Amino acid sequence: MPNRPTLGGRTKGSMLQGDDYEPLLYMHKAGWEIWYNPQMQVEHQIPKSRLEKDYLISLIRGSCLCICQLRMIGAQTREKPLIVAKIMLGRLRRSIQHIIKYKCQLKLT
After folding, report:
1. pLDDT digits (tens, 9 = 90+) for 14-55
2. Any idea what DSSP says for residue 51?
3. Structural domain boundaries in the chain
4. Is 0.70 topped by the overall pTM?
5. How far apart are CA 25 and CA 36, in angstroms?
6. How would you classify residue 13: left for phi > 0, otherwise alpha for psi between -120 and 50, otherwise beta?
7. What are the pLDDT digits (tens) for 60-73?
8. Burial environment of residue 17 by CB neighbours within 10 A (0 to 12, 13 to 18, 19 or more)
9. Contact by Cβ (8 Å): 67, 17
């Protein structure tokens, strides 16, 4: 685990995500086991403001921006261009599928 993680989490003016997932990837890369416990539960109360469109769009943007950085953890240098291409083509494919599925409902602003 680096002394300073790359993804710092949400701060004022930034909704960059991945700060909780990044340490897990480094631990896995170092050979540690990561376990899932389905009996564990977390109760999380979400304020109404976090269900508004502007907040959700910002949250989604922050989640998408960290994907490339997270996928690069543990990747060899020669694999990195392929990872970037795969992410971009995957996002393009999902966008096209969304446009085809919801073409009648799109509101371009």
Report:
1. 777 788 888 888 888 889 998 989 999 989 899 999 899 888
2. G
3. 1-37+48-74, 76-109
4. no
5. 14
6. left
7. 888 887 888 888 88
8. buried
9. no
